[in-house]
């Protein structure tokens, strides 16, 4: 699905036999995605910005947005798929037959690790072939390190993280990777929440209270808070704080703004408040982050 869509839109790297990765960034637009995925192929999208929305034949909706991983093995249960730009991320596309020897080599280097890929196939079948992982401790660490890597290493990192996620899904413990099927939500509610989430992305420098956001969504405060947590896995205020810090990190890496300028760009009135919030997420000051990157 995404591999076909991104065939001529991204920067592809053959990381190992049977596994390739695409770094991509689409500036604007809403795109309809082809509902095609060959047997014994799977895709893992590490989404950095934007969102991909899948609509199932029963009317339920699955959304993967920034800092989440979308897993795809079977599209037969879908009626529609679309992507909303600005969309950016890394797509890992795997041909399981050709990747078998590569996986065996990796397992051998890890002390003859045994992976029950049949268990993963059965688990994904239970999710109707589509699942979203995150936000969890695993996904936050995966994306935090992805941000710090040189562009040339990001394809390898995401392929490695995909193997790690495969291991976690094979491990007989209580879902350590946190991948799960999103609960079915009313499509109209999903559209209202997605519209509001995009508004939040575009107005990170403003005071965005629950009252303001619920009014924008034309929902009660309770319905907005419960729906947002259900769809995106975090309370709205926590999601907003995390997204502001991620945007701040982007500005620190790619702009010449002062620390105060970055703080104001993501809704903080003082550099000290911003520095405290940034340190909580990245375990270093903004100045140290900029110097290290």
Describe the structure.
- This protein is α+β, with helices and mostly antiparallel strands and 293 residues long.
- The chain folds into 2 domains: 2-170, Jelly Rolls (Sandwich), CATH 2.60.120.10; 187-292, Homeodomain-like (Arc Repressor Mutant, subunit A, Orthogonal Bundle), CATH 1.10.10.
- It has 12 helices and 8 strands.
- Helix 6 crosses helix 7 and helix 7 (210-217) crosses helix 8 (221-232).
- The radius of gyration is 19 Å and the shape is globular.
Topology at a glance:
Layout: H1 2-5, E1 11-16, E2 19-26, E3 30-32, E4 41-56, E5 61-65, E6 68-72, E7 78-95, H2 96-109, H3 117-126, E8 130-133, H4 137-148, H5 154-170, H6 187-202, H7 210-217, H8 221-232, H9 236-254, H10 259-265, H11 271-282, H12 286-292
Antiparallel strand pairs: 1-2, 2-7, 3-7, 4-5, 4-6, 4-7, 6-8
Helix pairs in contact: 6-7, 7-8
- The N- to C-terminal Cα distance equals 34 Å
Can you tell me the CATH superfamily of the largest domain?
Jelly Rolls
Beta-strand proportion: 15-25%
- Major β-sheet annotation: 8 strands, antiparallel
Average pLDDT, to the nearest integer?
Answer: 86
């Amino acid at each position: 699905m995404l591999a076909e869509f991104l065939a001529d839109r991204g920067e592809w790297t053959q990381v190992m036999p049977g596994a390739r990765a695409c770094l991509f960034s689409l500036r604007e637009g809403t795109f309809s995605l082809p509902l095609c995925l060959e047997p014994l192929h799977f895709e893992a999208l590490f989404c950095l910005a934007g969102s991909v929305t899948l609509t199932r034949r029963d009317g339920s909706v699955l959304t993967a947005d920034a800092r989440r991983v979308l897993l795809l093995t079977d599209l037969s249960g879908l009626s529609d798929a679309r992507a909303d730009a600005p969309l950016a991320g890394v797509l890992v596309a795997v041909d399981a037959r050709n990747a078998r020897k590569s996986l065996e080599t990796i397992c051998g280097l890890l002390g003859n690790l045994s992976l029950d890929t049949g268990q993963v196939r059965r688990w994904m079948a239970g999710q109707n072939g589509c699942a979203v992982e995150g936000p969890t401790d695993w996904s936050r660490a995966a994306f935090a390190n992805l941000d710090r890597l040189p562009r040339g290493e990001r394809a390898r990192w995401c392929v490695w993280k995909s193997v790690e996620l495969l291991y976690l899904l094979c491990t007989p413990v209580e879902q350590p990777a946190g991948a799960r099927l999103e609960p079915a939500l009313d499509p109209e509610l999903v559209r209202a929440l997605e519209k509001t989430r995009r508004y939040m992305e575009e107005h990170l420098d403003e005071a965005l209270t629950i009252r303001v956001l619920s009014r924008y969504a034309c929902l009660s405060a309770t319905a907005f808070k419960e729906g947002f947590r259900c769809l995106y896995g975090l309370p709205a205020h926590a999601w907003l704080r995390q997204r502001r810090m991620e945007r701040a990190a982007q500005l620190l890496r790619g702009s010449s703004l002062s620390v105060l300028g970055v703080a104001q760009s993501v809704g903080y009135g003082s550099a000290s408040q911003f520095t405290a919030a940034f340190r909580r997420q990245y375990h270093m000051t903004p100045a140290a982050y900029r110097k290290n990157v």
